[in-house]
Amino acid sequence: MGKSLYAATGFVQAGLVDERQHPMLNEGGPDVTWHELMCSVVGQSKKTPSSTLESILLERLGNDQDKLDAIIDLDLLSDQVAPKKGSLLDTLSAHLQARLTYENNERDLVILRHTIGFEESNGRKGTEEINLTVYGKSYGGLSSMAKCVGYPAAIATKMILEGELVNKGVVIPLSKDVYHPILNRLKAEGIRATSKTKYHN
Q1: Who's near 179: CB < 8 A, 6+ residues apart?
Q2: Helix locations, the chain, DSSP H
Q3: pLDDT band for position 4 (50/70/90)?
Q4: Cα separation, 151 vs 146, whole angstroms
Q5: What's the chain's Rg over C-alpha atoms?
Q6: DSSP structure string for 67-113
Q7: Cα-flanking dihedrals φ and ψ of residue 96, to 5°?
Q8: Residue 197: enclosing H or E segment and its boundaries?
Q9: Res 52 pLDDT > 60
């Protein structure tokens, strides 16, 4: 698993992918370092020693040292001042936007995950997990974001021009005649999701 994917899954486990407003991240409030913020995230005093914070976080990460190393490498346990953007997710995004720049041999990555709960007619409950990982091209090729946004739009446009889609107006792609051919053609472009069903009882 690449370092970028370790970091991304580590963000979720660490509790950083949270859209709720965080009291320490009010833009008009006092400066807060990443060390202090992470202490708050794991429920510790902001003066908690770095070694203790790392041990607590490592346990939260399932004792995966690679994930912890990725978080440390991104200065998320440092004394660097965090850009206060209201929520943990927005603050993390702003930090990564400033922190990460592409080198000539690097590429971007899109990770998408949907977790959908369901209940069958017999009362059995479960969860459907749908995951998508797409890498961009280095050296001036298409980014993963360009692929994930541009390809579906281009495929749908071609289907309309060729008369394959005949519905008028704004069409939500929730019917099989729309999304099935698009998903199949995306697979030919290397964009393919995986799914897994888990039953709870």
Answers
A1: 173
A2: 3-14, 34-41, 50-60, 65-73, 88-99, 144-161, 176-188
A3: low
A4: 8
A5: 21
A6: HHHHHHHTTTTSSSBP---SBHHHHHHHHHHHH----TT---EEEEE
A7: -65, -35
A8: strand 194-199
A9: yes
- Predicted pLDDT of residue 1: 42
Taking the C-alpha atoms of residue 49 and residue 54, their distance in angstroms, rounded to an integer, is: 9
Biggest alpha carbon–alpha carbon distance for the chain: 64
User: Is the overall model pTM greater than 0.90, yes or no?
Assistant: no
**CA 83/CA 32 separation, integer angstroms:** 8
What pLDDT does residue 171 have?
Answer: 83
Q: The tokens of 130 are what?
A: 């749908």
The two beta strands, 109-119 and 194-199, are: unpaired
Residue 2: pLDDT over 80: no
Query: What's the token pair of residue 8?
Result: 């991304």
* Residue 88 structure tokens: 């943990």
CA distance 18 to 89: 5
Question: b/e string for 90-102 if b means 16 or more Cβ within 10 A?
Answer: bbbeebeeeeeee
Pairing of strands 109-119, 125-135: antiparallel
Give the model's pLDDT for residue 138: 75
